[in-house]
Amino acid sequence: MKIFTKQEKSIILxxxxxxxxxxxxxxxxxxxxxxxxxNLRLVGISEEISKIYSNIEKDSNEEYSxxxxxxxxxxxxxxxxxxxxLAKRIIEKRKEMGGFKDLDDLLKVxxxxxxxxxxxxxxxxxx
Length: 127
Fold this sequence. Notes:
Layout: H1 6-33, H2 45-55, E1 66-67, H3 73-76, H4 84-97, H5 114-120, E2 124-125
Parallel strand pairs: 1-2
């Protein structure tokens, strides 16, 4: 007694494969773009960030730029999308790492993903 025809087995195989690929994609997205995993190197993200950074036209008014390695909580909350809680996380991660050395170091802060990073990038400097 056959439960599935050959065609039905093929369809089940294709759907199962798509499900597995989708799950792998979700896992990869979480660890590559979330910035919450200290154990994984953000593969290829440095090059992407460099491209974004080079394409952003900085505001000519320097009073809007802050040095992310020296700014205090009060200065950081002036950044778009950064409130007191995120400002504290940035400062804690900065202390833990001994300062932000690369652009992608900021993505290691819980709560900063690519979207928020793009928002604040025009207003920060790394010195």
